Amino acid sequence: MNIKAVIFDLDGVILSTDNFHYLSWKKMADREGIYFDREINERLRGVSRMASLDILLEKSEREYSNVEKEKLAEYKNDEYRASLKDLSPDDIFPGVNDFITFLQEKGIKIAIGSSSKNTKFILAQVGLTDQFEGAVSDGTNIIKSKPDPEVFLKAADMVGIPPAECLVIEDADAGIEAGKAAGMITLGVGPAAKHPDADYAALDVSSFDRTLIEA
Ligand code: BG6
Ligand code: MG
User: Fold this and answer.
1) What's the pTM?
2) Does ligand 1 lie within 6 Å of residue 139's CB atom?
3) Average pLDDT, stretch 73-81?
4) Tell me: the pLDDT tens digits for 27-59?
C-alpha cells in the first residue's frame, strides 16, 4: 500500500460516541412517542444529523414540517453536546495515538473526514486539535453526506494529496462507499470490516497490520 495520507473518520474510529448519539436520539424519540431502538441506531452510523432524523421519523405516525424537524434535531444535538462534556483524552481508542505518531514519523499526512458537525468540539475534548490542524473536513464544510465522496475529497485537498494515495479508515458502510467513490483505498474497522468493498479490514485501528503501509 503506497499511501501519502490517512483520512480518519472520527466517530467509531478514533473514539466511540455511539452510545451518546443513541441516548440523545432515544430521549428525543421518547418525548415524541416514536419507537426507536439500538438496531435503528445502527442505521445512523456515518449518516448526517438530518438524514439520521429522517430515518428515525420512518417510525412516526405523522408528518413533521421542516421547521419542526429543525427543532427536533436541535433538541437532540443539545442533549448530545451536554453528554460530550466529560469526554477526555482517555476516551481515544487504544493504539490510535500510537498509530498517528507512526504515520507522522513516516511523513504520512493525517486528516479527518467526518459527517459530524461536532467534530472540532470532540477533537478539542480529547486533545487532538493540534494533530489535525488545518486538516479537518467535517459536517460543517460539506453539502452532501456520505456515501457521497465530498467529505473525503475535501480532506485530501486540505493535505494536498491525490485521492489515489489516500487511505480512508471507516467504521460505517456509508463511509467505505464514500471512500471508494472518492477513488481512495479503504480500511474497514468495526462493523465496516465486513463491507465487501473495503480493501482492508481490521477489528480496530490497533489491530491493523502497519507493515502494509509504505511511504
Ligand atoms: C457521524 C455519526 O460521525 O456523525 C452519525 O456516525 C451522526 O451517527 C453524524 O449522525 C452527524 O453527527 P452530528 O454530530 O453532526 O450530529
Ligand atoms: Mg464513524
Assistant:
1) 0.95
2) yes
3) 98
4) 999 999 999 999 999 999 989 999 999 999 999
Report the pLDDT value the prediction gives residue 206, as an integer from 0 to 100: 96
CA of 201 to the centre of ligand 2 (A): 15
Mark whether 173 is an active-site residue: no
Domains and their CATH numbers in the chain: 5-15+89-214 (3.40.50.1000), 18-86 (1.10.150.240)
pLDDT digits (tens, 9 = 90+) for 178-193: 999 999 999 999 999 9
Contact of 168 with 174, CB cutoff 8 Å: no
Helix, strand, coil proportions of the chain in percent (round to 5)?
50, 15, 40
Determine the 3-state secondary structure of 201 from DSSP. strand
Q: Please say whether the beta carbons of 167 and 5 come within 8 A.
A: yes
Please tell me the residue having the least CA distance from ligand 1 atom 11: 116
Could you give the 3-state DSSP secondary structure of residue 66?
helix
